[in-house]
Structure formats: C-alpha cells, structure tokens
UniProtKB/TrEMBL annotation, chain A:
The protein's name in its UniProt record: Phenylpropionate dioxygenase-like ring-hydroxylating dioxygenase large terminal subunit
Keywords, in A-Z order: 2Fe-2S, Aromatic hydrocarbons catabolism, Dioxygenase, Iron, Iron-sulfur, Metal-binding, NAD, Oxidoreductase
InterPro entries: ARHD_Rieske_2Fe_2S, RHO_NdoB-like_C, Rieske_2Fe-2S, Rieske_2Fe-2S_sf, Ring_hydroxy_dOase_asu_C_dom, Rng_hydr_dOase-A
The family this protein is said to belong to: Belongs to the bacterial ring-hydroxylating dioxygenase alpha subunit family.
One protein family per Pfam: Ring_hydroxyl_A
Organism, scientific name: Pseudarthrobacter enclensis
UniProtKB/TrEMBL annotation, chain B:
Superkingdom as given in the UniProt entry: Bacteria
Official protein name in the record: 3-phenylpropionate/cinnamic acid dioxygenase small subunit
Region (Disordered): 1-27
GO-annotated molecular function: dioxygenase activity
Sequence ranges of Polar residues compositional bias: 1-15
CDD domains in alphabetical order: ring_hydroxylating_dioxygenases_beta
Family: Belongs to the bacterial ring-hydroxylating dioxygenase beta subunit family.
Pfam families referenced in this protein's UniProt entry, alphabetically: Ring_hydroxyl_B
Ranges in a coiled coil: none
Keywords: Dioxygenase, Oxidoreductase
C-alpha cells in the first residue's frame, strides 16, 4: 500500500490533496483504519418501538439486525448464520420473535440466541460435536445508545460512546431531546449518489459559505423566509467533542420570541424550557443563535431549518433530519435520510414539519438537489492525475502565518461548549479531516476470530468452553441460564 | 401493486399529507382498449410523458388539479406476509399543488444547478389500463413508467422503474391529474436526486 504520510501531512495543514475524494487506496485505508473502529450510527430506538421489532442496517459490507428482544433490550446482531453464513434476515424491517436461516433451518431468537439446530444429535453428535448452548449470532463488537440513537463500533475496545460524543452531546440534545421523551424517527429515504462520503459530512459540519450560492433558488421561490441567503455569515460555526455544526443569528427578543421566530409552538417551547439546561437555553435566548446543520465524526449529519411551507402564509415551520453518509466505494455513497420530530409534538405540527422536511431535504428535497449535483461533479473531477497535483485550499479562517481571521467567541459572548466563531470559515471541516488523518495514520489491530460451536485447534474437545468474546457473553446475560 | 391496500386503506389514505386528496376508486374490470375513455386516458399519459421529457413543467402543472395528491412512498423490503411494502409515515414525495408548484418554480430560476445543464430525459410509459369509477367524469388509469435520465457526457445514466395509479378528472378544458400514487420498484433509488417527475 502506498505511504500516505505526505497526504496526511498536507491535510493537517488544511491543504487537501483533491484525490482523497476519489481514490481507491485511500478508501481501502478508511475501511481498514477508520470504519473498523469509529462509532457509527445505525438506527434510533423509535424505529424498533415494540418487542420483536427490527431493522437491518449495514456498516460497509456488514449487515446487522438491530432488534428489540423479548426483554426490551436493543441488540445489534451480525446477520450471518453461524453454520454456512447465509443471511438469517433478508427483510429490512419487520417484527419477529425468531430469525430462521432459509438454508438449513437454524433458527435464532431476536436476542441472537440459537434455538433451533435441525438434527443436532444425528448430524453433529449433539453438544459433543457442536456446543449449541450459549451460542448467539455475533453481536456488534460494541454498542452504545445516547438519546435513543443507536451506535455500533467494530472495535470491541471502543471508548465509551458518551466519552466519544463528549461536548457534542450538548448540541445533540437540540436535535434529539426537545422533551423528556425525545424524538421519533421516520424513514429512512435511501438513495445512492456518485460522490465520496466525506464531502457531505464536511458540508454539513461547517459549510455556511455555500448557502448563498448553492441555495439561491430556494430563497427565490419563497421557500426560505430570510430575504437573502447571505444571512448565513452572521451565524456561527462550533466544534465540540467529536462533532460540530453551524447556527443562524436570531433577531433580538426573548428566548420564547426567538423559538417562536423559527416556528416552534408554545407547547413545544415550554417542554424545551423544562428539558434543556440553562446553558442550552442561553445559546438561544441570551446569545441569539439557533442550531442548523451539523456533523458527528465520521459520517453522521443533522439538519434543522425552518422553511415556509404553506401558500399565502408567512409562517415558518422547523424540521429536523438525521442522516448517514454510508460509504459504498471511493466514489459512491448511500444516503440514509430520516425525518425526526419530537414525540410529544402535536400531530398537526408533526405533519407540517414532515412537509417542511420533504420540501427541503432528503431524496426529493429542494435544498439537497443542488448540493448533490456539486458533490458528484467534485468526485468525478477528483479521479484524475491533475487532482493529484492540486492541493485544495481548505484553510478558510486561517491566515498564512496560522493566525485567525476571526477569534473564537468568549464565554461572555457564548454559553455553549467547544470553540465557536462568527462567520464563514472551514475550522469544522478541518476538525473532521484531522480526525480522519489520525485514524488513517494509526495501524489497525487484527480482530480476534471466533470459533463457533467447537474449537478443534486450541483445546481438547472435552475440556474447552466455547470460545466467546467478552462482549458476546455480556450481550446475552440474563437468559442464558434459563436456556441451560 | 399500486392498488394495494393495507388494513383496508389505500396508500394515499395512509399518507401523512393526503388528507385533502380525492378518494374516488376504480370499479369493475379494465376497459377494452378501444373504449373511448381508455383512448383518452392513454393519450393523456403519452402527452404528459412528452411534456416531462421536455421539462415543460408550466404546461404540465396546468394539467394538474388544484386538489391533487402526488405521492411517491418509500419502498421497503419486508417478509412475505408482512402486509406492507412501504415505509410507514415516510415518502419520497407527498405533494399537493402548492408544493409541486414550488418545485416547478425552482426549475424556472436561474439557480437550480442540478438541472443546469438540463438532464436528457425519456419517460417510457406502457402497460396502460383504465377503469371507470362511480363518478362519470373521473377514471383511474394504471401504467408502468421507466425513466431514463442522462446528465453530462460520459457519466452513467440513471433509470427509475415504477408503477403508477392515477385518478384523472374531466374538466371543461380536458383531463386533469387529481391523484397519483407512484410505486417505485427499488427501495434504494439509484439516482442522485428526484429533481424529476414520474
């Protein structure tokens, strides 16, 4: 494999070798060193509200069943039969107490435990040939949940999810915890774009600069109330923990005035006041900023915006969308885009917020349409030899000597955590790519292999306990004894 | 599939934003292919395909009823017998006349980059059949549509295959589209966006 140290060195200076947006070797390295260990969003608890509900999601080529088992626990089970490797679940959503492999009929409960193994005695000689007891579909090496957002990591030793999120949790709450019951997710819409996955993540993280140009049309047709899209430069970018995003500057007024300005009804405002910390409320009420787009490293993004969705009305309506930029190859990404809304909002609000989402973002969204056109074009152009010579200038906000064009806001000016600046810059894109470079530089450890049912290599058959990874054991705690 | 009902309800009835939609349903068998109503419906669909290929969206919008419901559910892969194959509460498009008009208006600005340069579009419409309803001036037309979309020079073209069920209504000036349910044949769309109409 080519030594990429010069590429990473350039990236750390904010100079981006253009080919990183369409380079198979770079993508292979991302698979080996980034997606093999970073926390990755797969689903939200509200997508599997009832016992037995499941959705199937991928991490690169790996398919996982995200299920709610009979005890109400969330599971992430590798969707591969322990026997011959067939997918045990070929639907993408549904409700099931068991998953039965269509190949030889092995079956598993929705917590992963094997329950049916046809002709266990006759074919395998029973437990002496295949230790069925305690066997489960392989659980995701690590699983973590915050505000109902389910993340998995392929690294069994991943740092705790909440440590990884860090101060970004402060901002995640605006999107996913507007009341005590949090959000419900609908979707996702899924579509594939011929663009590199990093471009969308960078754009949502901090690219306020593109709005006036790329999204002129949605202002012109009256979808977006702000008379001029340049209004973006009065907002801020922030970076906190492993994520960052953008805000809009709000007009003068109280907390309530400002939440009403973006379209929140009074009942939702009351719940936000109960739910959010004083600092979270102060970012809006005292400092006058409202969160908009954001990204969590490496490939999860958020949008919060407030378009005008009804004829003959100046009223705006906020919507929230969550998305994942699922890498397919160096030049293709599957976008998964969900609509999110506070569970306790009125049905009328939920419907209009959904309408706002459909008009603006997602597969048919009018903002999104022009974004993707740019990203596909960029990815195409990044494939050639000239792109290997060009270092894109991603240093916006930095002077040549490393000084800042604009200094961060002080604690007196801004109540939230992290580093926050007013105006256009590319600090957040650089923060994402710095983390990306750190991963790509650090060799991956080989993952431990699991011998299922028997371990003829390292132990005498009569004596060995089935080799089970620590997390496998932890994932099926309570009910093992019942089975035995 | 477009006529599929879940729990006795049509997809338009189940959709989040379809409360305003006309509810007229088909009756009886499909009409003979030489039936005057079938011929009119078929002609309307072919004329529409040419308008959409040419991106003559103002003219297209003029043929859309004021109470239209234009629905494209998100298809999902579910087990046989699950009883549904669309994502509950989510669609790609769940439109009324106003939201369609905004989409059309956007294409008319000079800043709809995704269609500048414009795509080369070809809507193939086939398998057309027509049904009477219990209203003299409304008919249901079903059709299969395949859209070929080419952008730029050598970039791979995208195709979308779908079935449609339309409610067409006769007015003083001709037929209008009053309801359309578009059943995509893929759960993951292989097209960069839906800056097109089916």
């Amino acid at each position: 494999m080519t030594d990429q140290s010069v590429v990473l060195q350039d990236v750390r200076q904010g100079m981006i070798p253009a080919h990183i947006y369409n380079d198979k070797e770079i993508f292979d390295l991302e698979k080996e060193r980034l997606f093999s260990r970073s926390w990755l969003f797969v689903a939200h608890e509200s997508e599997v509200p009832e016992t037995g509900d499941y959705v199937v999601r991928r991490v690169l080529e790996d398919s996982f069943i995200i299920s709610r088992d009979e005890m109400g626990e969330i599971r992430a089970l590798f969707n591969m039969c322990l026997h011959r490797g067939m997918q045990v679940c070929r639907a993408e959503m549904g409700n099931a107490s068991h998953f039965r492999c269509p190949y030889h009929g092995w079956s598993y409960r929705n917590d992963g435990r094997i329950v049916g193994l046809p002709f266990h005695q006759e074919a395998f000689g029973g437990e002496e040939g295949f230790r069925k007891k305690g066997q489960t579909l392989l659980p995701a090496p690590s699983l973590g949940i915050y505000n109902g957002l389910i993340f998995i990591s392929m690294d069994p030793d991943a740092q705790p999810l909440e440590d990884f999120l860090g101060d970004f949790k402060f901002y995640l709450d605006y999107y996913t915890k507007q009341s005590t019951d949090g959000i419900e997710l609908r979707g996702p819409q899924r579509w594939r774009i011929k663009a590199n996955w990093k471009i969308g993540a960078e754009n949502f993280a901090g690219d306020m600069y593109h709005t006036p140009q790329t999204h002129t049309s949605v202002v012109e047709i009256g979808l977006f109330r702000e008379p001029k899209a340049e209004k973006r430069k009065d907002g801020t970018t922030y970076w906190a923990g492993n994520g960052g995003g953008t805000t809009y500057k709000l007009p003068e007024g109280s907390l309530e005035d400002r939440l009403r300005y973006v379209g929140y009804p009074d009942d939702m405002i009351e719940r936000m006041k109960e739910q959010w910390s004083q600092q979270q409320l102060d970012v809006i009420g005292k400092d006058g900023f409202m969160i908009s787009a954001a990204s969590l490293f490496p490939n999860m993004s958020f949008v919060h915006n407030w378009p005008r969705v009804e004829e003959d009305s100046d009223e705006v309506l906020p919507f929230i969308s969550i998305r994942q930029w699922q890498p397919i190859s160096e030049n293709e990404t599957e976008v998964l885009s969900w609509f999110a809304v506070d569970k306790n909002a009125s049905e009328e609000y939920k419907a209009l917020s959904y309408k706002a989402y459909l008009m603006c973002f997602g597969s048919g969204g009018m903002f999104e349409q022009d974004d993707v056109e740019n990203w596909v074009s960029l990815t195409n152009t990044a494939a050639g030899s000239m792109a290997r010579r060009l270092l894109l200038n991603g240093r916006m906000g930095l002077l040549e000597n490393g000084g800042n064009v604009v200094e961060p806001l002080t604690p007196e000016q801004y109540s939230g955590p992290g580093s926050t600046r007013v105006g256009y810059s590319e600090y957040n894109q650089r923060e994402l790519l710095l983390r990306w470079a750190d991963h790509l530089e650090r060799p991956a450890r080989a993952a431990a292999q699991l011998h299922v049912g028997v371990d003829p290599v390292s132990a005498a058959p009569a004596a060995c306990a089935t080799e089970t990874a620590p997390h496998t054991a932890a994932a099926v705690p309570a009910m093992m004894s019942q089975e035995a | 599939m477009t006529a599929t009902k879940v729990n006795g309800m049509t997809l338009s009835e189940q959709s989040v934003l379809g409360a305003h939609a006309p509810r007229t349903q088909r009756t009886g068998h499909s009409l003979p292919f030489n039936d005057e109503l079938h011929l009119e419906a078929h002609r309307w669909l072919v004329d529409e395909a040419y308008l959409l290929d040419a991106q003559d969206y103002d003219e297209w919008l003029a043929r859309i009823a004021d109470d239209v419901h234009y629905l494209m559910p998100v298809r999902v892969t579910t087990a046989l017998g699950a009883g549904y194959s669309t994502s509950p509460g989510m669609a790609h498009l769940d439109e009324n006349k106003y939201s369609l008009s905004r989409r059309v208006a956007r294409f008319a600005t000079e800043h709809a980059w995704t269609e500048d340069p414009p795509s080369r579009l070809r809507h193939y419409v086939t398998n057309v059949r027509t049904f009477r309803t219990d209203k003299a001036d409304e008919i249901v037309a079903e059709s299969a549509v395949l859209l070929f979309r080419s952008r730029g020079d050598v970039g791979e073209a995208a195709t979308v295959s779908a079935g449609r069920e339309d409610l067409l209504r006769r007015t003083g000036t001709g037929w209008e589209l009053a309801r359309r349910t578009i059943m995509l044949d893929e759960s993951v769309i292989r097209m960069q966006n839906l800056a097109i109409f089916l």
